[in-house]
Amino acid sequence: MGDPKNPDALYSLPSHSLVQVGFREEESVIPYPGHAHPGYRLMFEYFHFPEKFYFFDIKHIFLPQDTQDITFFISLSDNFTFKANDITGRNFKLHCAPIVNLFHKTSEPIRLDHHVHEYRLIADLKQEKTTEIHSILEVKANIDGSSRLETFNPYFSYSHQSLKEGESFWVSRRVPSLNPAFGGTDIFVSFVDQHMNPHAPPTHTLFANVSCTNRFLAHEIPVESVLEPEKENPAAQIVCLHRPTLQYYPATEGTSQWRLVSQLSLNHLSLSNAPTSLLAFREIVQLYADAQTSGALPELNAILKMQTSSVIRRFGIDAWRGFVTGTHIQLTADREKDVQKNLFLFTSVLNHFFALFASVNSFTELALYNQNHEVWKTWHPMAGNQPLL
């Protein structure tokens, strides 16, 4: 790091000053159930929104308060196949953040006429063409003859033991949109009791707090469009640097459902040197890839071999902490030039993915090798979201 006012003043920052951003739970951009494993969220975000991992922080910078400009010198190892001229100032931007097309709304009220067993949930009747429900946050109802609001729990929740017999739960079902001109999907809700039998709540009107998208409208925003903030914002202007990605929908039927169920058995397969371990790993990763490109994942196909071994590492720098036994994971990859960029980001995500599966009082340590048994990259040992050293 250098000071433009004093070219001879150079300061060396510690190696841990560069911190990748986007891996922690508070840095997630896609809503994910609280009971779901955070490692799967990382996989999902990587395959559907990899740009969120293009950020990094520079820490441990101590400068005088009147400093306005600083210069960073980043040394590149010989392992990189691209030239230094490939990296310019255009590759770096300050004050950027990922944006996701999601917003909260209160749905249109539903009249329970008991003529049907399920009811279509509409977020905005006037703007239905450009408003689609992404997820249901909660379902509430006005109890007849009272101003009190009652909240209904989803059937697949953890609140069954605390409720009385005869309580109603809601169940949702997503189907292709009933209006072909809109595209996207519709959501229906129905009510059941603890035994999954139809059970309408004692009310006539209910509504839901939902998270919504604008269907395919966001993809029509051109590059460099100026966005209007809904609330006060310290930024002078908000500009869309890239065109928003297309909206994708999960498969509502077919083999993908069986593959999701099979993940329950895949979770019981531990990392090992056995060929089945690599096969199970590939299957899990492909579950969270884009359904249209899951058969052509160059970064995943580049991984040729997985080996694991037990290692012992120092836990922290304090002498009293002692040593911890963990798992060293060695991935051997085919480092072709056309997959090298994606391979580094992909294995960086895998580093956090494996660490989140580490058992208590243990850790994982990931290393990437090429076919000549040469080390390309070794990550610091990690336990959960925390580096071990």
From TrEMBL:
PANTHER family: CYTOPLASMIC PROTEIN-RELATED-RELATED, TYPE VI SECRETION SYSTEM COMPONENT TSSF1
Protein name as catalogued: Type VI secretion protein
